[in-house]
Amino acid sequence: WPGPMRAEASEVRPDVVTCTSVLKAWAATGDVERAEKGLGAMLAESDPEARPDVQSYNTVINTYAEKKNFVGAERWLERMRAEDSEVRPDVVTYTTVLKACAAARGVERACRWRGAMHAERDTAARPDAQCSNTVINTDAGKENVVGVERWLERRRAEDSVVRPGWRCYTARRN
């Protein structure tokens, strides 16, 4: 682990909660480089108790999203989706990448990631209302009324418990 957390003489070893807390602290200051290095160090960690979990990844992905850097957010999502990854993305991971795409007005990218969510084998990564609202708001921000209406129609037609709510229709009107 980079920095003073890894004291070789100490019998106390940081675990995933400790390491992720440090990532969150770096993220809170906007230091995406340190947060990314910290996550990289967690990935290289031989101690299974200090290996990253979904919250560790989501912390770094959110740091990129806050900086409107969808490329960095997508890179870490792709690492999670890799066949050899120990950690799988969840709905928060995807929604955070959608948020990064929305901030950068990347409607097509947001749509692609939402489609990838539907293809996920893990039900924890299936789209929810917040994901769809993020895509709809991205279209609305680009004044793409046709795109907003397309998403509303798709959500109405989906065989899902997620149905358009007032936030979806508000995005369409604004």
Set down the secondary structure blueprint.
Blueprint: H1 16-28, H2 32-44, H3 54-66, H4 70-81, H5 91-103, H6 107-119, H7 129-141, H8 145-157, H9 166-173
Low-confidence stretches: 168-174
Structural class: mainly alpha
Shape: elongated
Number of helices: 9
Could you describe the largest sheet, including whether it forms a barrel? Answer: none
Measured as a percent range, the helix fraction is 55-70%
Listing every helix as H and every strand as E from the N terminus to the C terminus, the arrangement reads HHHHHHHHH
Tell me the Rg in angstroms: 18 Å
Strand content: under 5%
Question: How far is the first residue's CA from the last residue's CA?
Answer: 47 Å
SS elements, strand count: 0
**Average predicted local confidence, pLDDT:** 78
Could you please describe the fold and organization of this structure?
This protein is mainly α and 174 residues long. 64% of the residues lie in helices and 0% in strands. The chain is built from nine helices and no strands. It has helices at 16-28, 32-44, 54-66, 70-81, 91-103, 107-119, 129-141, 145-157, 166-173. Helix 5 runs parallel beside helix 7. The radius of gyration is 18 Å and the shape is elongated. The termini are far apart. The model is unreliable at 168-174 (pLDDT under 50).
Question: In short, what is this structure?
Answer:
With 174 residues, this protein is an all-alpha fold.
